[in-house]
Design goal:
Two copies of one chain form a homodimer. By secondary structure, chain A is an alpha+beta fold. Helices cover 22% and strands 36% of the residues of chain A. The first copy, chain A, has one domain (6-137): 2,3-Dihydroxybiphenyl 1,2-Dioxygenase, domain 1. In chain A, strands 2-3-4-1-5-8-7-6 form an eight-stranded mixed beta sheet.
Chain lengths: 139, 139
């Protein structure tokens, strides 16, 4: 499997609204669509466009959110994960599993509506890494 | 100033060689050129290509390196910074300074040979952010 397109950098924030305000003030950047909830993942998300990729702002939906702990440790927010595209999520998962790479939980639908999974940071140089099926190749 | 191209994601590592081995094994990815030292910044760096951006692997050159503390806290390595391109580094610096954004140190030459500066994570949602003059627009 080749290293695919960097779909987005995931940035945790205590407040998507305050983060959007900063992007607006500093860069005149508007969000790519309105923020929306992903209750299954316990997060509210919003994308901001750079010319070649996106920033995914992620805010915990509540104290049980997996991102809540991150914000407790990093009250200003911070870099949370990176996400690379793959042509076929099932093939990517099988390939990683065959190589002993630890995958976190089941394959599920991500913020872009295509299947995704996360790989354990311990197996990716300390970087929490998401793999998502490319939108143009989704079934 | 508009949000520019994401030139790279900076990933700190205790060993560039071991990180490269992982990219090679998992993705068949070769480095974009050999690792090289940036003694003025106290780091050894190496780039790996994704189709739309790069990963910058950063290894501390010694215990006094600014990245050494990061590796002490994150022995596996981890996400260190993101870097966006700007057309004119002096204009970007003046623009940020006028808005009260804290810039870390002087403008200096970065790993791509063009002028760069870093912005304080406190002023960028907890994300250490580098701005670099686009190579194609460098003087």
């Amino acid at each position: 499997m080749k290293l695919g397109r960097l779909n987005h950098v995931g940035v945790a924030t205590p407040s998507i609204e305050r983060s959007l305000e900063r992007y607006r003030t500093l860069f005149g950047a508007d969000p790519h669509g309105e923020p929306f909830d992903l209750p299954a993942q316990g997060v509210r998300v919003c994308f901001v466009d750079a010319p070649n990729t996106q920033i995914e702002l992620i805010q915990p939906l509540g104290p049980d959110s997996p991102v809540a702990k991150f914000i407790d440790k990093n009250p200003d927010g911070g870099q949370h994960h990176v996400c690379f595209e793959v042509p076929d999520i099932a093939a990517a998962r099988a390939d990683f599993e065959a190589q002993g790479v630890r995958i976190l939980g089941p394959t599920r639908v991500g913020a872009h509506g295509t299947p995704i999974f996360f790989v354990h940071p311990k197996d990716m140089g300390g970087v929490l890494t998401e793999f998502m099926e490319s939108p143009q190749q989704a079934h």
